[in-house]
Specification:
about 180 residues; alpha+beta; PH-domain like; 2 domains; four-stranded antiparallel β-sheet; four-stranded mixed β-sheet; 6 helices; about 50% helix; about 25% strand; elongated
């Protein structure tokens, strides 16, 4: 009975980003932002909109990413939370936020691009997408691929190893009757 009470009283699990692991993302954002500025400048100086428009789009996209990464380094942001309500995706600017337990089919741990991901497979992706703002919905669809889940949390910058994260979230998944599939 005491073990059952412990399961009922599960604490929130917070998986945080390790600031030192984010520097590569920051360098990539700076590089892409600088490249976008150069492309925009080349397009505007030659009055060639075929370069200027994508360059401006790149400035907007990578500028937002740059600010988001800097904010994450300074403030320290969690990648995800697992609690009584569900799984909260906070990994990127296009994250969907809270996914309640009844919306989750199962959770898959997968490797892509030499990185481990927590993929939350949803029962109805459209329901989750409807809750997002237009901008977040656009970013999510831009970032989404049919081979991945709508909620794909990269663990490459996490403070814990993927095995430690699995150990931390497994009790919550079991309590709510969700399977953890390691693929």
């Amino acid at each position: 009975m005491a073990e059952n009470d412990n399961i009922q009283q599960l604490e929130e699990v917070v998986i945080r980003e390790q600031p030192g692991k984010v520097w590569l993302q920051l360098l990539f954002a700076i590089f892409m932002l600088a490249l976008s500025i150069l492309i925009t400048y080349a397009g505007l100086s030659s009055l060639d909109m075929i370069y200027a428009v994508p360059g401006m789009f790149g400035i907007l996209l990578f500028g937002i990413a740059f600010v988001y990464i800097i904010r994450g380094i300074v403030v320290g942001r969690p990648l995800m939370k697992v609690n009584a309500a569900g799984i909260v995706d906070l990994a990127s600017i296009s994250s969907v936020g809270l996914v309640e337990w009844h919306e989750i089919e199962n959770v898959l741990v997968s490797r892509r691009f030499r990185q481990t991901f927590i993929d939350v497979q949803l029962r109805n992706e459209d329901e989750v997408l409807k809750r997002l703002s237009g901008f977040k919905r656009f970013l999510t669809k831009l970032n989404f691929s049919p081979q991945t889940s709508l909620v794909a949390i990269p663990l490459g910058t996490a403070m814990q190893t993927p095995d430690e994260i699995i150990e931390l979230i497994q009790p919550h998944l079991q309590k709510h009757g969700r399977k953890l599939i390691i693929g």
